[in-house]
Amino acid sequence: MKFLExxxxxxxxxxxxxxxxxxxxxxxxxxxxxxxYAENIGxxxxxxxxxxxxxxxxxxxxxxxxxxxxxxxxLYGGFMWMTAGGNEDRVAKAKKIIISGAIGLIIVLAAFAxxxxxxxxxxxxxxxxx
Length: 130
Description:
The structure is a single chain. The protein is mainly α. Helix content is 73%, strand content 0%. It has helices at 6-24, 37-40, 51-82, 88-127. The protein is elongated, with a radius of gyration of 21 Å.
């Protein structure tokens, strides 16, 4: 069956994961980065949306997407391992894929933590809080 061939199956599985990730991705948190500061002191407003808010949103969505890809790679490695049928070469390849996916996930989570930390520090510096 052409539908169940590994290449077609992985493309369709990837498309499903991509669509689910885009639909279920958490929205970027509304963080006050001092955009309304000009209005508070009586200066003219530059508009409703600031470039900093846009950049934060793009970065958070990008990191969420990369996290979904890393999890998909881990799942793919697990699928390869489960279908290896005892073939040591395929099991070794599957282990490498799983380890690579786990390292990628750790990097993405660390990047997300760093970005969140920098955003909060910036917000606190702008707003004068701790």
